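Priority: medium. Attachment 1 of 2:
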């Protein structure tokens, strides 16, 4: 079995690299797009800077709608859009599209909850010093919520490692595709276990790194 692992090791590393590529592109895009969406959800919410109940209901419904889609169904449902956007429906590039679409509202909800958890005291203090809404969001809310937001990025990344593994079912590449091809179709259990162990190590590395960065960003510790 060890010889077999060495034989496919380059392919296994390539699969791990494909999973990393999916995450390195999808997660930053989710943070980039999900942060303003989450801030907007908070701002127009009942306890936000500028409550707008109707707009909040619309945005809240859209976010819940996308988040409620099982990833595998979303992956298949948006195949025409994926083909239009990246020109293919298989491979790493094709998986990044549904991953990002799923991740944006996922992270937006984290942002909304983390900012709401700060309470109204920090907002009132900033207002009393004459801060504008933009300054309150940029210099107060996002700064105070930074440790929680980093933890949220960590949680999202760990979750989407498992999502990226599902992409193997539609030829999306990555470590999940490797495990399915060798473990499911070829019944090479040892290789499937090796892929699982690598995925567990990847999850642990992400979790430990995220926790460390979050602690460093927390001014209270």
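Attachment 2 of 2:
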């Amino acid at each position: 079995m060890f010889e077999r692992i060495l034989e496919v090791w380059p392919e296994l590393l390539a699969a791990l690299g494909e999973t990393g590529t999916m995450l390195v592109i999808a997660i930053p895009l989710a943070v980039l797009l999900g942060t303003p969406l989450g801030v907007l959800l908070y701002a127009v919410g009942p306890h936000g800077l500028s409550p707008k109940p109707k707009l909040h209901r619309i945005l809240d419904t859209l976010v819940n709608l996308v988040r409620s889609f099982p990833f595998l169904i979303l992956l298949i449902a948006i195949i025409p859009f994926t083909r239009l956007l990246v020109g293919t429906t298989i491979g790493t590039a094709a998986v990044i599209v549904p991953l990002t679409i799923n991740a944006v509202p996922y992270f937006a909800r984290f942002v909304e909850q983390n900012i709401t958890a700060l309470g109204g005291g920090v907002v009132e203090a900033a207002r009393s010093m004459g801060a504008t809404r933009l300054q309150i969001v940029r210099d107060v809310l996002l700064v105070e919520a930074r440790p929680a937001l980093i933890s949220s990025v960590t949680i999202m990344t760990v979750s989407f490692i498992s999502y990226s593994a599902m992409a193997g079912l539609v030829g999306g590449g990555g470590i999940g595709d490797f495990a399915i091809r060798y473990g499911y179709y070829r019944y090479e259990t040892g290789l499937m276990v090796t892929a699982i162990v690598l995925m567990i190590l990847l999850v642990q590395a992400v979790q430990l790194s995220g926790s460390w960065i979050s602690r460093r960003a927390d001014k209270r510790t």
